[in-house]
């Protein structure tokens, strides 16, 4: 699977997290994974407008810290960020709990059975992973690797990147930084 065509990052424990970029890529990702017959931990915000994010690891190897990092990522790349919320509620379940019938809209899936819920704060760190600029949960990286922090903001991310006064951010490729950020506004903070 070419995970780089989706939203992605690596947790502190080096587990790959992959999420859809929109309704169509959510469907493509989940359909692709359903065909493998494997079972993974999956997340989505309680409210609509979120990527489905998957922890690419055997379920028995997924730690509470991995779940927390994936939940933050899911919340940050959801509609909650665009709406400048400081928190989001995330549903945590297994791939085997998901189903879809032909009448369901693109990007919509049914979750059967119990889900766990996590409330997370929306804040990311700008770092390099695999030599690519990424916006990842703060706990997913070492402080020494963090270029800046970003939270939901009132200024559109394109304008926020163009107007940043942080020297470390000015050195980065603007298009790559914009691409790494969640949709909506951004507010940068120094480390």
Question: What would you note in describing this structure?
Answer:
The protein is of the alpha+beta class and 191 residues long. The chain folds into two domains: 119 residues, no CATH class; 66 residues, no CATH class. Helices cover 26% and strands 32% of the residues. The longest helix is centred in the N-terminal third of the chain and has 14 residues. The radius of gyration is 16 Å and the shape is globular. The mean pLDDT is 96.
The CA-CA distance between the termini, in Å, is 34 Å
Helix content: 25-40%
Global structural class:
alpha+beta
**pLDDT under 50 segments (min length 5)?**
none
Radius of gyration: 16 Å
Tally of discrete structural domains = 2
* Most strands sheet: 6 strands, antiparallel
Strand content: 25-35%
- What letter string, H or E per element, gives the SSE order? EEHEEHHEEEEEEEHHHE
Q: Give the integer mean of the pLDDT values.
A: 96
Offer a concise description of the structure.
The protein has 191 residues and is α+β, with helices and mostly antiparallel strands.
